[in-house]
Structure formats: structure tokens, C-alpha cells
Amino acid sequence: MIIEIGHFALILAFAVALAQSLVPLVGAHKGWSDWMAVARPMASAQFFLIAVSFMALTWAFVTSDFSVRLVVSNSHTAKPLIYKISGVWGNHEGSMLLWVLILTLFGACAAWFGANLPATLQARVLAVQSSITAAFMAFTIFTSNPFERMAFPPFDGRDLNPLLQDPALALHPPFLYLGYVGLSMAFSFAVAALIEGRVDAAWGRWVRPWTLAAWVFLTIGIALGSWWAYYELGWGGFWFWDPVENASLMPWLFAAALLHSAIVVEKREALKSWTILLAILAFGFSLIGTFIVRSGLLTSVHAFAMDPERGVFILFILAFFMGGALTLFAARANVMEAKGVFSTVSRESALVINNVLLAVSSFVVFVGTMWPLIAEMLFDRVLSVGPPFFNTAFTPFMVALAMVLPIGAMLPWKRGNLGRAVRPLVGLAAFAVAMGALVWAMQTGGSVLVPVGVALGLWVVLGAGADLWSRTGRGAVAGRLGRLGRLPRADWGKAVAHSGMGVAVFAVAALVGWETEDIRVVHDGESWRHGAYELTLQDVQRVQGPNFTSTMAFVDFVRDDGVTGQVRPEKRIYPAAGMPTTQVGLRYGLTHDLYVVMGDPQDGGGWAIRTHIKPFANWLWFGCALMALGGLLSLSDRRYRVAAGAAKAGGKGPRDAVPAE
Amino acid sequence: MSGLRAIAWALAVCVPLLLGAGLIGGVALAGPQPDEVLDDPALEARARALSADLRCLVCRNESIDESNADLARDMRLLVRERLLEGDSDAQVLAFVVDRYGEFVLLRPTTEGANMILWISAPAMLLLALISAGVYLRRREAAPDIGPDELSKEERARLDSLLRDEG
């Protein structure tokens, strides 16, 4: 019964969504305020209906209701509770329901917190958002019904893919979807503004928090996925340039560009049509990502099962929204005239460079990801585009970005003086280069990767500090330190996010450039040496887990500085899913991780064991966390809270006061 | 903004067209086994570098260096065999491509249409920089018309708000 209620709520929400995508639009066009006002309760209703639907599906997973097909194919009674819950979105149908839930959540937020928006704009935003929601609800109901029942329920389920039974991966999809779907708000605002024919500073201010939130969620989601790949997939990489990873990187890059260009719209009323186009493209690439993941078009480690019918449906959604929005853009873009005038040396120009680098790098990823397909269709060549291409083609953009970032961040608005902006940075640049040179002189091997990474990372982090310091004005150091704490949160957010980028650049270079590896056959009781570690294979045992059996190696280690400990790499077999996985024996550390992987038993006895030292791996996740934290700090800045506060006051104040007049 | 509009039109037409067809895949994990490792560390390093550039044919987007599929192992052994025979890196790659086709190369060649792929990054950057430059020049030259005038409705709303405050 609960399942049917969930299914029914989903269908009912679909009906509401259809109505909401038309009625407010007509209302806004004709100027009928009651037709516009209906959008807000409808948006709330959609959210509550989908929430009921989602809870019903969660209930089915938690109680292991094996009359539901989805529960049978993705759950098992012996599975720990947390993975029963994460199993809800660990599959195609359930994840679509989560996707729709988040779409309606964002729509409802625009209804709840958007009271200070002009009525027509809010009505149009909610209508556009609802049309996206309706499209995905139709997709869920007609091609991917999560509530399908089984005629003959089995005694137990087939279990969730063991690779997905992991804390980081339980959280990875919700964050990623919050990011992908958050960009739909920027899209809705862009399309609404195009219909409205008006983009001004206020529009920039409304769009920015949504974009910022989406970007923060995407950052966290991608970092979680990358961390998971690092410790779970067993070869210690953190980024594989897999189509599915690229699918999340492209919207992330566009979102980063968008949240920077929206600043220019907000502060200077320039770059308007470009910002609109970016908002459309950012969500467009989210949709392309969805298409790549769910159509199985491009093969990948972690794509959902492929299905041409679903692929075609998403292709239609993509074609409709992208084609529609871009056509609308082409027809209306000239309405939005830029206002702000600025010189070539200015913050505006620096942000244009930022946008050029981020957008073009994203297109490079897109071309690389799609090239095998294009080459096959047009040139009849079956070929691959892998990490070597992306590393070569993408990295220069990030290097250039890191090089110009500190200078651009300190240039004044409107008209700057390059000499004056650069002056406080010259010393820092010299220091960063000197440190890079020092590292180059000290390391063996002569690769320039890490020295460059050290110099760039230091340059960006120190530049962010200098930027923050310059905001405290002039005068005594004590006074400036005091002012540091009173700076707007947005200033702190900017500095923290930028230094996060610097830390990540350094970490990637160090991890790739300094990693060491050892492969060997090890017998019980045997010792071996790798780097500063003396390792001993103490024992190999069979261990029984809740829904798996494990072959676990107990490896003791002694580091040269006297630190001792034990890592336990495992090979697991999940009988219900019939799938083996590896668990890495990992010892996290500040300057490096010890990373031990257990391979197969060898014919002559003993085990294949790989030992890696992963330098500064933790710094990569720390850098990503800093970026996300910076975004959150900016999001909590006073001017957004003031806007929200004004919305509340506005609801009670003038609006109610008008009829009293 | 005619440049942006042209891009928008082109994308509106092209993006949906670019997406449509299918491929296949399997699942695998891990990498080179202890018995494969060559005694000569320089040769082994070259073998690893080459392996990272070669695709495991039966896996999903994995190099033979990352895969534990049997075929990947065979290919790793083949690469090492050729290296021991004294082949150069280019000769090894040519040998493998000859056997398995262009599909194995994770770093696409620069031959024929692939030039488009390799040139796309610098070309797009150049195009974007030129467009940005033109835009910036125009912004610099544009007359400063100051902040936007309020529309009639906004003026009326502002007036009523001010009245309420007063």
C-alpha cells in the first residue's frame, strides 16, 4: 500500500508540475497576478508530494520489501542499514527519483525565499523550473518506474553493487545531484530573464547564491567521488578522465565560470548576455552528463546499465531545453545591453580571462570525451581518447589559471594599474619561484612537475593571503589584524576558495610526480622494504563480514623514524552480488599515505602485494574542502542574508500594507 | 554580441546531433603482476609508461597498466617482449597498433582527422581570446551611460514604498 501511495504521489506531482509550467507563464504574460501567485503553493505541493514518494521508496528499501523489483535487484536483508538507505539512489530508477526530489526542492526554495523577486520574474522562474521537473518526472514514470512490483517476490534480494557499499559513495550521488540540479535554478533564472527581456544587477545578485550553492555541492560531490576512487578502486588514482568523471567536471568548470561572471553582472552590469549563455550551458552540460551516465553511450567504470530507450528520452529532454533556451538566447540576447564601461586592465577583464580559461577548458574536455564518437560517425575510425590526451590538453589551462589568478583577484574594478596591482605580489612571486627551484634542486629524477606545482600552489595561496591583507586598508599592523576579522564573509570566502585551488594544484603535482610503487610476491612472515618503510606480512586470514567474506592480510610496518602500525588490505567477495572487490590497506598521513594492495595468491605460494607511497594525497581532499568552504563562506555573506531578511520583512510589510491604503 | 548568438545557434543545432550510438564494456581491477616486472629498471619504467598509454580492449576505459584482465596481461607481456627485443617506444606502439588497431591508443595519433582534436584546444583558446579582446576593446570605447534608468512600474513601486516609509 505504501508503495502505491508513493507511486500515486509521483504521478500527482507530475500533474501539478505540468500545470505549474503553464499557468504562471500565461499569468506573467497577461499580467494576471492570481495566475502568477498560484506558482508558489504549487511548487511547495510538488516538493511535498515527491518527498512522500521518496520516503515510500526508502521505506521499501529499509523494510526489504522484495515485492518491489528495484529492491530485489539492489538490496539484501543482510546489508547494513546505511547501505539499504543509500541503495535507494544507488541505481538508475531510485537516483532519478532523488534527482526529481532535488529539482522540486530547489523549485520550492525559489518559492519560499524568492518573495523579494519581481512577481513576473518569480512566476517565470518557477514555471521554467517546473517544466524541467515535469520532463524528468515523465522520464521517471514512463521509462524508469521505481515502484514496479514483482508478481512472485523472491525470498531475498540480489544486493547492491559492492563497490557502492561505501560511506563516501553513499553520499557522493546526493551531493552531485544537488550540484547538477542546483544549476537548473541558474538555467531557470536565465530563461526567465530572456522571456522577461531584462537582466540587471539585481538579477546577478539573485542568480549568484544558487550558482554558488550548486558549485559547492558539485565540488563536494566530485571530491567524494575522487577520494572514493583513490581508496576503493585499488590503483590509487584520483582522476581517470573517464566519461562519467568528465560529465561532472564540465558542469563544475562552467559553474565556476558562471559564479565569477555573475559577479561582473552584479557589480558592474557588464557581461550580461555571456552570463546568460553560461547559465544555459552550465545546466546543459549537467544534462549532457546525465545523458552520458544513463544512456551508456560512452563506456565507463561507473555508468548505470545502458538502455537506448532511456538514452533517447534524455536526448529529447536535452534537445528541447538546450535547443529552446539557445534559440531564445539567439533571438533575445541583443535586448540585454551592457552598461558598465571598464578599461582593459581591470577586475572585469581579469574575470573575462577567468571565464575564457574555464569555459574553453571545459569545451576541451567535451571535445575529448566526444571525439571517439565523432571519429567513428564521421571518419569511420574506431579510436580512444584517454588520460594522456586530457593531461596534455587540459593541464595548460589550469596552469594559466593559477598564474593569472592572484593578479586578477587584486586588480581594482573599472580601471586598474597593472604596476600598482602587481607590486605587493612581486615578492611573493619571487619567493614561490625560489621555493620551486629549491624543490627542483633537492629532488632526484629531475621532473619539473612537482617544482612547478610547488611554485604555482604557493603563488596562489600567498596571493590569496595578500589579497585578503590588502582589504584591511592601511595603518598599523595591529589595527589591520583587527579589521581582518571584520571583513565581509565574501572576502574570506574568496581567499579561502582561491587558496583551496592552490593547495589542490600542489597536491596533484606532488601526488603524480613523487609517487613510488613496489610490486612483489610476499610469503607469510616475509619482510620487504619500500621507501622509509620496513613492512612484514604477518598473516593472511579469512574474515566473515555482514554480507561478504574477506581474505585479509595483516601487514605490520616500521617507519625509519620509529612509527609503527598495521595496515590490512583485503580481497572481498560478495556472494549475493557475485562480485569481488579489493580493500586497500591505507595509512593516512600528513605528508604521505602508505597504500598497500593485496593481489592474487601465486602458484608457488605467497601473495602478490603492491606497496605505494602517495605523497600529499590528503592535501588534495583538503584543497577541495577549502574550495567548498570558501563557497559556503561567500554564501553566508551579509548581503545575501540581508536580501533574505528583506524578503521576510517585505512579506509582512509593504505588500500587506498596500490593501490597507 | 553577434558572435555569441552565432555560437548559440551552432550549439543549438550541433549538440543534440553529436550525441547518438553505442559501445560495449566489461569490468576489471588491479595491474601488473610481480612475475611480469622486468629486471632492468630503465626498461621496466619504459614498459610502464607505454602500458599507461595503451587501452585494455575488454575493459571500460582502463589502460593495460590498471587492468587485471587476461588480455591486458598478454598485452603487457607483449610490450615487455618487444622492449627486450630492443624495439624503440615508437616501434612497440606501431607493433601493438598493427595487431589490435588504433583503438588501443589512449593518446590519439595526430594523423588525419585527429588533427582537429589536437588543434581544438589551442584553436578554441585563440578564438576565445580574440573574441574577449574585441569585447574588451569595445567596452573600453563605449560611452559610460551610467546605471540603468528605472522603468515606469519600478518608479511607481519605489514611490509607494517611500510613501509607506514616510
Summarize the structure in short.
By secondary structure, chain A is α+β, with helices and mostly antiparallel strands. Chain A has helices at 2-30, 33-37, 39-62, 69-74, 81-86, 92-113, 119-143, 167-196, 201-232, 243-268, 272-295, 308-332, 347-379, 387-410, 418-442, 449-470, 477-486, 489-514, 617-635, 638-652, 654-660; strands at 516-522, 527-530, 533-544, 549-559, 564-567, 570-574, 579-583, 585-587, 592-601, 607-615.
Protein described:
The complex is a heterodimer of chains A (661) and B (166). With 661 residues, chain A is an alpha+beta fold. Chain A has helices spanning 2-30, 33-37, 39-62, 69-74, 81-86, 92-113, 119-143, 167-196, 201-232, 243-268, 272-295, 308-332, 347-379, 387-410, 418-442, 449-470, 477-486, 489-514, 617-635, 638-652, 654-660, and strands at 516-522, 527-530, 533-544, 549-559, 564-567, 570-574, 579-583, 585-587, 592-601, 607-615. In chain A, a hairpin with a 4-residue loop joins strand 3 (533-544) and strand 4 (549-559). In chain A, helix 7 (119-143) packs across helix 8, helix 11 (272-295) packs antiparallel against helix 12 (308-332) and helix 20 packs parallel to helix 21. Chain B has 166 residues and is an all-alpha fold. Chain B is elongated. Chains A and B meet through helix 11, helix 12, helix 13, helix 14 and strand 1 of A and helix 1, helix 5 and helix 6 of B.
Q: What keywords describe this structure?
A:
heterodimer, A: 661 residues, alpha+beta, six-stranded antiparallel sheet, four-stranded antiparallel sheet, 21 helices, 66% helix, disordered C terminus, B: 166 residues, mainly alpha, Helicase, Ruva Protein, domain 3, elongated
